[in-house]
């Protein structure tokens, strides 16, 4: 088991868990209740919202921005856009998916009504 490093300029809020052999890069900020599992390397200038969970043995690239309650299960090589969700994905994709997700019960009823209508049309022909 190696050493755990928190580099200069890192800002950690309350109730942060940094596991064994992990590294937090320079000027990275973490809000409350972030958990970093063992052997994870977090880059410089990263931002983590509250309650973010990061799985073990991952590499998080410099400048990565992660929204609150996100779950990071894969390494992030290069920060391109903010990520959110669990598992964490591009924030724009997440918002589009969430808009659909909220409408699923209504869409399910519509699909069932269409199925019934199709069956009725089939039986008439």
Question: What brief labels describe this structure?
Answer:
125 residues; alpha/beta; four-stranded parallel sheet; 14 strands
Describe the structure.
It is a single chain. The longest helix has 21 residues, at 104-124. By secondary structure, the chain is α/β, with parallel strands linked by helices. Strand 13 and strand 14 (89-90) form a beta hairpin. The protein has 2 helices and 14 strands, in the order ββββββββββββββαα. The N and C termini lie far apart (72 Å). It has a 4-stranded parallel sheet with strand order 1-4-7-10, with no helix packed on it. The chain has a 4-stranded parallel sheet with strand order 2-5-8-11, with no helix packed on it. It is elongated.
| Strand segment tally | 14
The SSE string, one letter per element, is: EEEEEEEEEEEEEEHH
Instruction: Compute the separation of the termini in Å.
Output: 72 Å
Which regions have little confidence, pLDDT < 50, spanning 5+ residues?
A: none
Q: Structural class of the helix and strand makeup?
A: alpha/beta
Taken from the alpha-carbon principal axes, the silhouette is: elongated
Sheet with the most strands: spatial strand order? 1-4-7-10
- Classify the helix fraction into a percent range: 25-40%
**Tally of alpha and pi helices:** 2
Strand content: 15-25%
């Amino acid at each position: 088991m190696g050493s755990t490093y928190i580099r200069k300029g890192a800002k950690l809020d309350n109730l942060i868990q940094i596991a064994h052999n992990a590294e937090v890069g320079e000027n990275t900020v973490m809000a409350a209740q972030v958990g970093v599992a063992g052997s994870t390397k977090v880059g410089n200038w990263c931002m983590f919202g509250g309650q973010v969970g990061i799985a073990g043995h991952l590499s998080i690239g410099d400048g990565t921005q992660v929204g609150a309650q996100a779950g990071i299960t894969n390494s992030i090589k290069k920060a391109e856009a903010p990520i959110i969700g669990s598992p964490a994905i591009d924030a724009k994709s997440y918002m589009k998916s969430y808009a659909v997700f909220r409408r699923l019960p209504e869409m399910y009823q519509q699909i069932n009504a269409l199925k019934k209508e199709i069956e009725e049309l089939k039986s008439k022909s």
